[in-house]
Amino acid sequence: MSQRTVALIFGGRSDEHEISIISAKAVAGQIDRAKYTVTAVYIDRAGRWHGGSCSTGVLDLDIAALLRSDSPESAGKRLDDLVSADADQRFDFNAFRQKSDVAFLALHGSYGEDGKIQGCLETLGLPYTGCGVTSSALAMDKALTKLCAVDAGVAVADSMTVLSTEYAGNPGKICDAVIARFSWPVFVKPASLGSSVGISKVHDAAELQPALDKACRLDSKVLVETAISGREIEVAVLGNNDPVASVPGEIIPGSEFYDFEDKYIRNSARLCIPAELPEGISEAVRESALKVFRALGCSGMSRVDFFIENGTNRIILNEINTIPGFTDISMYPMMMAASGVGFSEVVDRLLLLALENTSIIHKM
Ligand SMILES: Nc1ncnc2c1ncn2[C@@H]1O[C@H](COP(=O)(O)OP(=O)(O)O)[C@@H](O)[C@H]1O
Ligand SMILES: [Mg+2]
Fold first, then answer.
1. How many angstroms does the Cα of residue 315 sit away from the middle of ligand 1?
2. 199 ligand 1 Cβ < 6 A
3. What is the pLDDT of residues 211-229, one digit of tens each?
């Protein structure tokens, strides 16, 4: 078989820009070079596309070490320098399309995980890894995800959707409606952000308005949700029409909940793979992950996150991530590895699934 060319796309216009570069670096190291030639494509924070020495230069930076260093802003400075040096170059989309056989999307968050880049690549006619336009968009919006899950018979936390414009028009009315409907604590969260940004655990009426103010500033849609007291269990799913679910893994937060600091600053959460669960619950949570994957019309991969409620053992969907963290210490690759599929095989399968998918069906 002749070698195929993979366009490895990373960076992007999201807050998870640097995390995406770290994921891309990990993926670049796992692509089978006997089968694939890799071309790096870097999307800078402003949305400009770069190839050649700029994109390889970004991949060659040790962003993870720069972020951990005494001056984390030096990571941003090094990226800016590479982008400035490339300012005169024009990214040629036709050449990019012609020389690529498949795109590996190592992007996270807005513009990477929400259907937008997927739509762009569909328009170019280039196969890409992971979920399609509709499933990506559904998974990005936590309110819409819940509608699909409930339709498939998977439980979710009771929630109320608030539009930020509606809240701005009459904050008191929204607060009264929340107080009348829920008992404390509740979670307030932007519908379409990640990394726990803008999320608050609200313990009483006094904390409600500041939490809604914050979330409504960040997103046009916000969820107020019953707080679930339970364990946080995740499952990795891989496949197109016949997906497989990994062994479940558990996140044990180091703070009151799995917040931004816990994820990226203090690294205080503990990961336990496989999660210690009774056999029946482990099987049921894997089955629920596959149900959610299918209900949203996902393809390629997703990490499906649940709560197992204390006392009742009820399996409750929290959210689904269509491009989860993708380094060798991220939950998705670790849960797949614990299920017998190593990191390089995951990467290989995702590329094959991308190529297979476009030849059979249009992605949702
Ligand atoms: N309804 C809830 N009940 C209990 N904990 C929650 C709830 N919603 C969110 N959390 C906590 O907040 C964290 C982040 O929320 P999540 O909805 O997963 O957003 P993100 O997309 O930012 O990861 C979760 O991992 C969990 O610790
Ligand atoms: Mg989450």
1. 15
2. yes
3. 999 999 999 999 999 999 9
* pLDDT at 360 exceeding the cut of 80: no
Task: Name the architecture of domain 159-226.
Answer: 2-Layer Sandwich (3.30)
- The domain segmentation of the chain, as residue ranges, is 4-128, 139-156+229-360, 159-226
Identify the CATH class of 139-156+229-360.
alpha beta
> Ligand 1 center to residue 86 CA distance, Å?
39
How far apart are the C-alpha atoms of 200 and 224, rounded to whole Å?
A: 10
139-156+229-360 and 159-226 share one CATH topology? Answer: no
pLDDT in tens, 93-131: 999 999 999 999 999 999 999 999 999 999 999 999 999
Q: How far is the CA of 351 from the centre of ligand 2 (A)?
A: 25
Given a contact cutoff of 8 angstroms between Cβ atoms, the answer to whether 242 and 299 are in contact is: no
pTM: 0.95
Pocket test for ligand 1, best of 114, 192, 196, 264 (most atoms within 8 A of CB): 196
**Which ligand is closest in space to the CA of residue 193?**
1
Q: Burial of 62 by CB count in 10 Å (0-12 exposed, 13-18 middle, 19+ buried)?
A: middle
Class (C level, CATH) for 4-128:
alpha beta
With contact defined as beta carbons under 8 Å apart, do 5 and 35 qualify?
no
Count H helices and E strands in the chain, helices first.
15, 15
Helix 331-338 / helix 343-360 crossing angle, nearest 10 deg: 100
Which residue has the CA at smallest separation from atom 25 of ligand 1?
Answer: 258
Give the residue from 358, 341, 343 showing the smallest Cα distance to 28. Answer: 343
Distance separating the N- and C-terminal Cα atoms of the chain: 29
> 212 CA to middle of ligand 1, Å?
16
Ligand 1 site, residue 196, Cβ cutoff 6 A: yes
